[in-house]
Automatic annotation (TrEMBL):
Signal peptide (from-to): none
Domain HTH gntR-type per the UniProt entry, residue ranges: 3-71
Matches recorded under InterPro entries: Aminotransferase_I/II_large, HTH_trans_reg/aminotransferase, PyrdxlP-dep_Trfase, PyrdxlP-dep_Trfase_major, PyrdxlP-dep_Trfase_small, Tscrpt_reg_HTH_GntR, WH-like_DNA-bd_sf, WH_DNA-bd_sf
Membership in a protein family: In the C-terminal section; belongs to the class-I pyridoxal-phosphate-dependent aminotransferase family.
A GO term for molecular function: transaminase activity
Keywords from the named record: Aminotransferase, DNA-binding, Pyridoxal phosphate, Transcription, Transcription regulation, Transferase
Source organism of this protein record: Staphylococcus shinii
Protein name as catalogued: PLP-dependent aminotransferase family protein
Cofactor dependency: pyridoxal 5'-phosphate
Length: 475
C-alpha cells in the first residue's frame, strides 16, 4: 500500500520513540540530513515535522533545532504506548547477556550443550512417571489446588526423606515450591528488605540469576578459599550484619563442586549464630554425591531453626516436574506459603502427586539415584579423559566428587565473549565463568549432564581447536 513520504517519516520517528531509540530530550537530525536520508525535498521533511510538533511529539528550541518532546508520553499515550519506558523503569531487570543467550540457544536442536545444568533426556525416568500415573485412579488424583504449604502426602514423604539426612522436621516446617528457584524468590520477597546484605560464596550460582539483585540487595562475595582459610573468622568483626543472610551451597557447590567438611560446616553455623546471620542452604546437588554416603547438610546440625533449607527434584529427577521445598521454622514456612499463594496458587497438583509417590516408594527414588549416579560417573570419566587429551595445555580443573559440573580455569587470559560466539557458530554451547562471578572471566563451567556420552570426546576436541585458533590469532 502506497504511503506518502511525509507519513513514512512521521511513522519512523514514532517507531523510534516507541522502541526507545529516540528518548525524551534527544535532538532529531537536521532537515537537510532527513531530506538526504529519505531522498525527498526539505519541504516534505518540514511537513512531517510540523505535524509531529502539532501533536506535541517533538518541539523546537534554540536555533530551530528539534527535540523529542518532554511531554511525548502524555500527548501520545492514547495511540502508542512506549513499552520501552515500562521495561527500562521496571524493578525487575533482564538477565545478563550470556544467560539470555544460553537460555535461547539451549533450544537449538543441533547445539552441543557443554554447560547445561540439567539432566539430559536419557537420564530422566519418564517411563517411571507413566507407571505412577497409570496406577493412579480418579479418586486419588487431585487436579484442584493443593493446601498453601503443599500436598500433605508429599510433605509427609519429605519429612521421612529428610530424616535419612539427619534433618528433623514436621509437615509444618515444609513449604512446597516450584523448584528451589521459587524458594529463593520467596525468601527475597518475604524475608528481605531493599539493601539487605547478602553474603555469598564466590563464584556462585546466585550471581547467574536476578532474584536478589532485583531487591537492590548489597551482595558481598567471599571466595571459597578465603572461607576455608579463615574458617574461624569468616565475617568481619566491625561490620554490621542487621538484615543479612548467608547463602551457600555446602555440598557439591555450583559451579566449583566444592564440599565443606563436617568441621567447617559446624564452624559456619556457629559463626552465623554468633552474629545473628540466618543461613540459606541450597542442597539440590547433595544426593548426587558419588560415594556411598552423601555428606550431611548444614541443616542436620541446626538446633535453633537458624537455617532455611532448600531442596528440589529438579537436579536429581526431572527439571520439568518443578517440585522443590523449603524447610524453615513453621511460622516462616506458613508466611512464605501465603506469599506463594499470592503469586501462583502453588505447584501443579499432578506434579506433587507424582513426587509424593516417587519419594514414598523405594523402588522409584532410591533405585533411580543409584542408576543415575552410575551413569553420571561414566560421563564424568569420559569428560575428564577428553579434557586431559585436549585441554591440558590450556588450563586446569579438579575432579568432581558428584553432580555434573567441572570448573575449568584458563592459564592464559582469553576473550570469553569472542570464544562464546565462535563456539556457538560451530554449534557448541558453553557457560562462561563470569556468569557466576564477574571476576571469573577466564573460566568455563562445563557440564556433562546433558550431552550424550558418544558426543563428549568429539565435541571437546572441536572446542579445543576453536580455542587453539583463538590463541594463535591473539598472539
Amino acid at each position: 500500500m502506497f504511503k506518502p513520504k511525509y507519513k513514512q517519516i512521521i511513522d519512523d520517528i514514532i517507531a523510534q520513540i516507541d522502541t526507545g531509540e529516540l528518548e525524551q530530550g534527544m535532538q532529531l537530525p537536521s532537515q537537510r540530513d532527513m531530506a538526504s536520508q529519505y531522498q525527498v525535498n526539505r519541504s516534505t521533511v518540514i511537513q512531517a515535522f510540523d505535524i509531529l510538533k502539532s501533536q506535541g511529539i517533538i518541539e523546537g528550541r534554540e536555533k530551530q533545532r528539534l527535540y523529542v518532546s518532554g511531554n511525548t508520553w502524555h500527548s501520545y499515550i492514547r495511540n502508542n504506548i512506549n513499552w520501552q519506558n515500562y521495561i527500562s523503569n521496571s524493578t525487575t531487570k533482564n538477565n545478563q547477556y550470556f544467560v539470555q543467550q544460553i537460555n535461547k540457544l539451549e533450544f537449538y536442536t543441533n547445539m552441543m550443550r557443554l554447560g547445561t545444568g540439567e539432566l539430559g533426556p536419557d537420564l530422566i525416568p519418564n517411563e517411571r512417571f507413566k507407571e505412577i500415573l497409570s496406577k493412579c485412579n480418579a479418586s486419588v488424583l487431585n487436579t484442584n489446588y493443593e493446601q498453601p504449604q503443599g500436598n500433605l502426602k508429599l510433605r509427609e514423604a519429605i519429612v521421612k526423606y529428610m530424616g535419612k539426612l539427619g534433618i528433623t522436621c514436621t509437615v509444618d516446617h515444609i513449604c512446597i515450591t516450584s523448584g528451589a528457584l521459587q524458594g529463593l524468590k520467596l525468601i527475597a520477597d518475604g524475608l528481605l528488605i531493599p539493601q539487605s546484605k547478602i553474603i555469598v560464596e564466590s563464584p556462585s550460582y546466585i550471581n547467574s540469576i536476578r532474584t536478589w539483585h532485583n531487591i537492590r540487595a548489597d551482595i558481598q562475595q567471599i571466595s571459597i578459599s578465603d572461607i576455608k582459610s579463615n574458617i574461624n573468622n569468616i565475617f568481619k568483626a566491625q561490620t554490621q550484619y542487621t538484615n543479612s543472610i548467608f547463602y551457600c551451597i555446602p555440598t557439591l557447590h555450583n559451579p566449583t563442586q566444592h564440599c565443606y567438611s563436617i568441621e567447617e560446616k559446624q564452624k559456619i553455623i556457629m559463626q552465623c549464630a554468633q552474629r545473628g546471620i540466618p543461613i540459606v542452604e541450597d542442597d539440590v546437588y547433595g544426593d548426587l554425591y558419588f560415594k556411598h554416603e552423601r555428606p550431611k547438610p548444614l541443616k542436620s546440625f541446626d538446633t535453633n531453626d537458624n537455617i532455611l533449607y532448600l531442596n528440589s527434584l529438579s537436579k536429581t529427577v526431572s527439571p520439568g516436574l518443578r517440585v522443590g521445598w523449603i524447610i524453615a521454622k513453621p511460622s516462616v514456612a506458613a508466611h512464605l506459603a501465603d506469599l506463594k499463594m499470592q503469586n501462583d496458587y502453588g505447584v501443579s497438583s499432578i506434579s506433587q502427586y507424582i513426587a509424593s509417590e516417587w519419594l514414598t516408594q523405594p523402588q522409584y527414588h532410591e533405585q533411580h539415584l543409584k542408576s543415575l549416579k552410575d551413569k553420571l560417573l561414566i560421563k564424568r570419566n569420559l569428560f575428564l579423559e577428553s579434557l586431559e587429551k585436549y585441554f591440558n595445555n590450556f588450563g586446569s580443573w579438579s575432579t568432581p566428587e558428584g553432580s555434573f559440573y567441572i570448573w575449568f580455569q584458563f592459564k592464559t587470559p582469553i576473550d570469553m565473549r569472542i570464544l562464546f560466539d565462535e563456539a556457538v557458530a560451530e554449534n557448541i554451547l558453553i557457560n562462561p565463568g563470569e556468569v557466576y562471578d564477574k571476576h571469573a572471566r577466564h573460566c568455563i563451567r562445563f557440564s556433562y549432564a546433558y550431552i550424550e556420552p558418544d558426543d563428549i570426546d568429539s565435541t571437546l576436541k572441536h572446542l579445543s581447536k576453536i580455542i587453539q585458533t583463538h590463541f594463535s590469532q591473539s598472539s
